[in-house]
Write a structure and sequence with these properties.
single chain; 176 residues; mainly alpha; Leucine-rich Repeat Variant; 2 domains; two-stranded antiparallel ribbon; 8 helices; 2 strands; globular
């Protein structure tokens, strides 16, 4: 079995696991109200968005980035219910893919094919991750002001906010 074939098996297994858990959590009585609220032609299973995110994140937590991206594409493109699309978006928010510039084509595909506020609102977070995730070329930012620091570190804005401190000499933030 080639690496690509193994990844495909893993993608298929992750997609199947997510779909199975979504169907286990389904509330058919809730589904028509969700569909009416979203004015969606695509049916709903009746799973709340936070629950959908939890299912996707738990299922994909240990998966490799290529598998996560592949599963997100399959869930999105082959969705029979809207929660599958929400799960696809949640996979892009896992640490293995968060802020990865290679996800831009998939994010663009989702925006262009989803074209509804619930899609664009969620994907705006993935674009934000791209903007605030440190890269080797990005200057460190001051935790308090967001202004570039005088250091050459590449810790970036997100690590500054998550540590809740002030920049250190390496450009990272430490608690004050």
């Amino acid at each position: 079995m080639t690496s690509a074939e193994a990844d495909r098996v893993s993608v298929d297994a992750l997609v199947a696991r997510i779909r199975e858990r979504l169907r286990e959590a389904a509330d058919p009585a809730r589904a028509p109200g969700q569909q009416a609220y979203m004015k969606s032609e695509m049916p709903f299973l009746g799973v709340a968005v936070p629950t959908t995110r939890q299912i996707a994140r738990a299922a994909g937590r240990e998966a490799a980035p290529d598998v996560l991206e592949g599963a997100a594409r399959v869930l999105w493109d082959e969705a029979s219910h809207r929660e599958e699309r929400y799960a696809a978006q949640a996979l892009l928010g896992l640490d293995a893919l968060r802020g990865d510039p290679q996800t831009v084509p998939l994010i663009e595909h989702m925006v262009r094919t989803g074209r509804w506020w619930d899609v664009t609102d969620e994907l705006a977070h993935r674009v934000s991750d791209l903007l605030w995730t440190p890269t080797p070329c990005a200057p460190a930012r001051s935790c308090a002001t967001g202004a570039p620091t005088t250091t050459s570190g590449s810790a970036g804005w997100r690590s500054s906010l998550s540590s809740g401190g002030a920049p250190t000499s390496t450009g990272t933030c430490s608690p004050t």
